Amino acid sequence: MTDPTSPTPAVGPEPGGANRIRVAAASPYDVVIGNNLLGELPGLLGDDVRRVAVIHPRALRTSGDAIRDDLVAGGYTAHAIEIPDAEEAKSAEVLAYCWSVLGQAGFTRSDAIVSIGGGTTTDLAGFVAATWLRGVKVVHIPTTLLGMVDAAVGGKTGINTAEGKNLVGAFWEPAGVLCDLAALETLPRNDYVSGLAEVVKCGFIADPVILELVEADPEGASSPAYKHTEELIARAIQVKADTVGADLREKTTSVGGQIGREALNYGHTLGHAIERVERYKWRHGAAISIGMVFVAELARAAGKLDDATADRHRAVLESLGLPVKYRADAWPHLQDAMKLDKKTRADRLRFVILDALAKPTILEAPDPSLLIAAYAEIS
Ligand SMILES: NC(=O)c1ccc[n+]([C@@H]2O[C@H](COP(=O)([O-])OP(=O)(O)OC[C@H]3O[C@@H](n4cnc5c(N)ncnc54)[C@H](O)[C@@H]3O)[C@@H](O)[C@H]2O)c1
Ligand SMILES: O=C(O)C(=O)C[C@@H](O)[C@H](O)[C@H](O)COP(=O)(O)O
Ligand SMILES: [Zn+2]
């Protein structure tokens, strides 16, 4: 049963069927969820923009070319910039390649970037936009579930280095985000399910109705054809929009027991460490799934979280086919990688944990015995 009092998307579907969620920022912008949204692109680019770079991964060459052709037909000069698929795109080399294309094409401050792809594309393209001439306009068109509910929203952009995940980047908000649901139909199931990890995260940290909708039919929820897909997407985006709107630059570490944007990092301390140990070959959502089970066990071991909520993590993530365990022998490497987590202060590790369902908080410098006990539960 869904709880009618829990947060629902602030703005309902428009007559044309699209759902629009506003993100509060210095320049507020909308995340639009629907079908056939490309008609919105010129309005988001604005009247000044003449030249556009469409950044897309190899797998979406046809879509990237189609957007470029559309823009050209609309009177823009448009270039398609192809980048590698998945995490290979988030590198200094690919960033430098994009800069050189923009330089050769004569991109000025009145020109813009359009990204079309998953979270790796929006992270890279957002960082290109943040850094080219110290900042040009960007519009994201996320094509994965994860990109729609998380990566394209909120303005975190960046790349990975050998030392860790997203260690180099910038906050750079888009002018708008267009989530065309038809894109999800071509997404491999594994990638769709990886995105569900971030949806489930939003359920645990803020909106438990998400968990109920997944638990009602995990097999159904694992496909974009699920009758509640659009509601799941809208609810997760609403959690992200509300959270970043209240703490855009992740400055609030705790006010009256409430934490700010760091809540969205639930499961990410260990998750990012797993990604590094796996040399960025894993999907982000898979690593975050294990990371969430780990922090649930950590919160339980610290006497903060009740058994039922802790157990619910493993149950819901496993029911979706997401991984919930990791190799026991990897612990020393994971500990090493976690030292460079962005929440770490000096040598004090900080974990987002739950005090209760939808009550995220920070656990500072937990005793090593608690970390070992929690890791033993997932290895
Ligand atoms: N900036 C943020 O706030 C934020 C939030 C969450 C995650 N992230 C980042 O997002 C990245 C993960 O994003 P992801 O899970 O979308 O992975 P991804 O971008 O690697 O996409 C997964 C794969 O699907 C392909 N693909 C994309 N759309 C497709 C489609 N419609 N049909 C068929 N194939 C398609 C891609 O080319 C890629 O091979 C990670 O690097 C993570 O750190 C960032
Ligand atoms: O938007 C945020 O804030 C998040 O933490 C969302 C995460 O899901 C996302 O993976 C983000 O890129 C992690 O940020 P980082 O600062 O830990 O690199
Ligand atoms: Zn994430």
Ordered list of secondary-structure elements with their pairings:
Blueprint: E1 19-23, E2 29-34, H1 41-45, E3 51-57, H2 61-73, E4 77-83, H3 92-105, E5 112-117, H4 119-131, E6 137-142, H5 145-151, E7 156-161, E8 164-171, E9 176-180, H6 189-205, H7 209-215, H8 218-221, H9 229-246, H10 268-277, H11 284-301, H12 307-319, H13 331-338, E10 350-356, E11 359-364, H14 368-378
Parallel strand pairs: 2-9, 3-4, 3-5, 5-6, 6-9
Antiparallel strand pairs: 1-2, 7-8, 10-11
Binding site for Zn(2+): 198, 268, 284
Binding site for NAD(+): 85-90, 143-144, 156, 165
Subcellular location: Cytoplasm
Please tell me about this protein's structure:
The chain is of the alpha/beta class and 379 residues long. It folds into 2 domains: 19-186, Rossmann fold, CATH 3.40.50.1970; 250-378, Dehydroquinate synthase-like - alpha domain (Dehydroquinate synthase-like, alpha domain, Up-down Bundle). Helices cover 42% and strands 18% of the residues. The chain has 14 helices and 11 strands. The strands form 3 sheets. The protein has a 7-stranded mixed beta sheet with strand order 1-2-9-6-5-3-4, sandwiched between helices. The protein has a two-stranded antiparallel sheet with strand order 7-8. Helix 2 links the parallel strand 3 and strand 4. Helix 5 (145-151) runs parallel beside helix 9 (229-246). The radius of gyration is 20 Å and the shape is globular. The two termini are 34 Å apart. Residues 1-11 have low confidence and may be disordered. The structure holds nicotinamide-adenine-dinucleotide, the ligand O=C(O)C(=O)C[C@@H](O)[C@H](O)[C@H](O)COP(=O)(O)O and zinc ion (ZN). Ligand LNCXM5UN is lined by residues 150, 154, 156, 166, 198, 250, 261, 264-265, 268, 342.
